[in-house]
Design brief:
The chain is an alpha/beta fold. The protein folds into 3 domains: 331 residues, no CATH class; 154 residues, Reverse transcriptase/Diguanylate cyclase domain (Alpha-Beta Plaits, 2-Layer Sandwich); 251 residues, TIM Barrel. The strands form 3 sheets. It has an 8-stranded mixed barrel. A 5-stranded mixed beta sheet has the order 2-3-1-6-7, with helices on both faces. It has a two-stranded antiparallel ribbon with strand order 4-5. Strand 15, helix 29 and strand 16 form a beta-alpha-beta unit. Helix 5 packs antiparallel against helix 12, helix 7 packs antiparallel against helix 8 and helix 10 packs antiparallel against helix 11. The longest helix has 41 residues. The protein starts with a helix and ends in a 12-residue tail after the last helix.
Length: 812
């Protein structure tokens, strides 16, 4: 019977999306988080909240209630109709529990039990004719059963409040505020209902019992409001429906009390209206997709809003003295109200004392949150300042002159690891790093997280630099062990910078951290898992670097840049077929600087945009002059290097096409070179622009091939026409069979298979050139033929005919 009842209710009450999942054979419980998050935003302004009355369940039950209330039959029949609506509500609860297996099933068991008690109490009230009986012989069983249902609901809402607040929360405030609300409602009932009726010789016990109903329902409303104030978010449909359910019960109990003591005269159907509404809203709540949030811990700040709570406490505190001013005919009534006012005042004082304690706790929590990292629990930068200040105070008072070592730690390639694992995996790595750092510290050491993947360790009583280096080596060893994340094994490494200082009153915390940070960057520039101790030379190098950065931003405007061209030779035709444009910086203090001395800095500071534009425009203009300077250079192409930062911050495709159009050159005249690492670092960004350039005839060369990713799967899909063999593979050629021979042979074979050309860089000896020719490399570039020269000197190179001939010798 129960199974049939739940199945029938399931067909009536199932929300449209749940019905859709059942029709497709899916398990809606398994899908619950995804489809709730996607289709039902937890907000009062969601479509489900606005279209609440459009649901079939809502229309069906509202129609049922209208039919029931319009019949105006005898009380016993109305009671049966109300009981029928209660049975359907009970079925909706059972359907929800059986279908979705919610957390905290006991909540729904107690709610169902309280509903059964309400129905039994209503039936007993009709059968025993207790309604309107205000004499001492009034049957007490209906009230005992019904009030037990209220007590169960109080337990349920208190349990939900505990779930929302968490197991460690202090619930004294909630209990006191709820008691204040209950005492206030009971005081109002006593002043305006119980006291006047008591003077009419109506049984005082009966009136008190009747007044308990709205008192308990007011407590339920208070608990519901407390729960929803706790959420610190916009309310869901379930939150609104729960509040409507409890408010409807309170209104119904108030009307019930007033009608039974003949203060108002309502039809039985009208008096049942609030109770019917409470059942309807509860049914709608059980079919709403957000109902699961009711028994799940709040994921946000668990401190209820202050202003609404102050309003509740203030109204409760002030209302009782105001009731004492109302006209009362008996000393007994005045004494009762005075006692209630004293109880409210006592509760208010207790609540104030509790609030002061909560305030102290809140201050401690706020201080902890402001000085500690939420992810790892380590101290943050602010706590580091406080820690060192405490060390200074301690040293000045007791241990003057002790040495400390500050270790600034930065993880290597963490961004790539974070992109691979996702943020949850990256967070897991950071937590593991924090635990390993704490485990590797001494008892007097301390660990801090500065943000991102940067950490600081402070150790006291350091003897000298070698002692600090030993500790740093232990740190890198601990971090270098493998780590399991998402069922995969990874290995991490870190660079460590060290600053050693003697504690005294002149200690500059920021300066110490800055020095350790500079030492860390010095270590990172060396190799993974490197260690560096701060020295004055490091600071001087950084300061020079900073000055260079300022000068770099003015280099284009001051016309300090100039171009040189490195020939690319075709071994079959003995001709220069292309020239690679290389930028130089004529620095007013440091002389001529090569690209490796400033291009990386330009990329880091954004100066690469202006420099890149200048190189692109001027190199294309120079190509026109180069082609016109000698018949042998009439079809020479231009190779120009591009940085990935230019793709990210500029539109290379538009700039290059505009430069070609202005110089009246077609796209085949230019080949853009981009390094393998740059291309792979942001493939989505670069791929689109490179494809547009290729559609214009511009060729694309992959520079330094074989030194980075070298994934054949990527190479098959990349927009590349030409591979440049890195000089590191060329430098060992010509001295017999070597690993480089095998690698170069493989690269040439891959290029031929993919219909790509190959250029060998860094050719410096005849032996290297001959070996490359034997392996099938047609194009070469290097100091064997020429160093990079200004545009005007290219003609002289052509006239000298200093290129490799077909027989493998040098022509005069």
């Amino acid at each position: 019977m129960l199974k049939r009842l739940t199945q029938a209710a399931d067909g009536i009450l199932m929300c449209p999306i749940a019905r859709q999942h059942q029709a497709t054979g899916e398990d809606p419980h398994a899908k619950l988080p995804q489809w709730i998050a996607r289709k039902y935003p937890q907000s009062l302004v969601s479509d489900e909240a606005r279209n609440l009355l459009k649901r079939p369940a809502a229309l069906g039950f509202i129609t049922l209630w209208v039919l029931i209330e319009s019949l105006e039959f005898l009380h016993i029949e109305m009671t049966l109709a109300y009981t029928l609506l209660g049975i359907v509500t009970l079925a909706s609860i059972i359907r929800y529990v059986l279908r979705y297996r919610p957390n905290q099933v006991w909540v729904w068991v107690l709610i169902a039990t309280s509903l059964v008690m309400f129905m039994i109490g209503s039936a007993l009230r009709a059968l025993l004719h207790s309604f309107g009986n205000l004499t001492p012989n009034r049957p007490w069983l209906p009230s005992v059963v019904s009030l037990s249902g209220y007590v169960l609901l109080v337990i349920v809402l208190s349990g939900i409040l505990k779930i929302q607040e968490g197991p460690k929360a202090n619930r004294n405030g909630a209990i006191i505020e709820t008691l204040m609300t209950g005492v206030l409602i009971f005081g109002i009932a006593w002043a305006f209902i119980i006291s006047p009726l008591a003077n009419q010789h109506i049984s005082l016990r009966v009136i008190i019992v009747l007044a308990i109903y709205p008192t308990l329902s007011a407590v339920l409303v208070s608990l519901t409001v407390r729960i929803e104030l706790l959420l610190q978010r916009r309310l869901t449909t379930t939150d609104v429906l729960l509040l409507l359910t409890m408010c409807s019960m309170f209104i119904g109990d108030a009307l019930y009390l007033l009608d039974e003591v003949h203060r108002i005269n309502l039809s039985f159907g009208l008096m049942n209206l609030p109770y019917s509404v409470s059942l309807l809203t509860f049914i709608l709540m059980t079919v709403d997709p957000t109902v699961h949030t009711l028994t799940e811990p709040s994921s946000v700040n668990r401190n209820p809003r202050l202003i609404p709570r102050l309003v509740i406490i203030g109204v409760s505190f002030l209302a009782m003295p105001i009731l004492l001013l109302a006209p009362n005919e008996t000393t007994f009534t005045r004494n009762i109200l005075g006692g209630l006012a004293f109880v409210v005042a006592l509760l208010a004082l207790i609540r104030l004392s509790s609030a002061l304690g909560e305030s102290d706790d809140a201050q401690r929590r706020l201080h902890y949150q402001s000085t500690h990292d939420y992810l790892t629990g380590l101290g943050n930068r602010k706590y580091l300042d406080e820690y060192i200040s405490a060390l200074v105070d301690e040293a000045n008072s007791r241990y003057y002159g002790i040495k400390i070592a500050i270790f600034f730690i930065d993880l290597d390639r963490f961004k790539m690891l974070n992109d691979t694992l996702g943020h949850s995996g990256g967070d897991a790595v950071l937590r593991e790093v924090a635990q390993r750092l704490e485990a590797s510290c001494s008892k007097t050491g301390a660990v801090f997280r500065m943000g991102g993947d940067e950490f600081v360790v402070i150790e006291r009583d350091i003897a000298d630099a070698s002692d600090a280096i030993t500790i740093a080596a232990n740190i890198t060893e601990a971090l270098g062990r493998t780590i399991n994340v998402h069922q995969s094994v990874y290995r991490i490494s870190a660079a460590v910078g060290i600053e050693i200082a003697t504690i005294d009153s002149t200690l500059d915390v920021q300066r110490l951290i800055e020095n350790a940070d500079l030492a860390m960057y010095e270590a990172k520039s060396s190799s993974p898992s490197s260690i560096a101790v701060f020295t004055d030379s490091i600071r001087k190098s950084v300061e020079a670097h900073a000055d260079l950065e300022v000068d770099l931003h003015n280099a284009v405007r001051q016309e300090e840049l100039f171009l040189v061209y490195h020939p690319i030779v075709d071994m079959k035709s003995n001709t220069i077929v292309a020239v690679e444009a290389l930028v130089r910086w004529r620095h007013p203090k440091h002389g001529v600087l090569a690209p490796d001395q400033f291009i990386k800095l330009a990329e880091q500071t954004g100066a690469i945009i202006d420099i890149g534009r200048w190189v692109l425009v001027n190199a294309v203009k120079d190509l026109v002059t180069i082609r016109a300077s000698h018949p042998a250079l009439a079809r020479a192409r231009l190779n120009v290097n591009l940085s990935v930062e230019q793709f990210r911050r500029d539109r290379i495709d538009i700039l290059l096409v505009a430069a070609l159009r202005e110089s009246r050159l077609d796209g085949e005249a230019v080949c853009v070179e981009i390094t393998e690492s740059s291309l792979m670092s942001d493939l989505t960004m670069t791929d689109g622009q490179l494809q547009k350039l290729r559609s214009r005839g511009v060729r694309v060369a992959l520079d330094d091939f074989g030194t980075e990713y070298s994934s054949l799967a990527y190479l098959r899909t990349l927009p590349v026409d030409l591979l440049k063999i890195d000089r590191s593979f060329v430098e060992t050629l010509g001295g017999g069979v070597s690993v480089s021979d095998t690698l170069v042979t493989a690269i040439i074979a891959i290029a031929n298979g993919l219909n790509m050309d190959v250029i060998a860089e860094g050719v410096e000896t005849i032996q290297q050139a001959r070996r490359l020719a034997e392996l099938g490399c047609e194009y070469m570039q290097g100091y064997l033929y020429s160093k990079p020269v200004p545009r005007e000197e290219l003609v002289r190179l052509v006239d000298k005919h200093s290129v490799f001939n077909r027989s493998g010798g040098l022509s005069a």
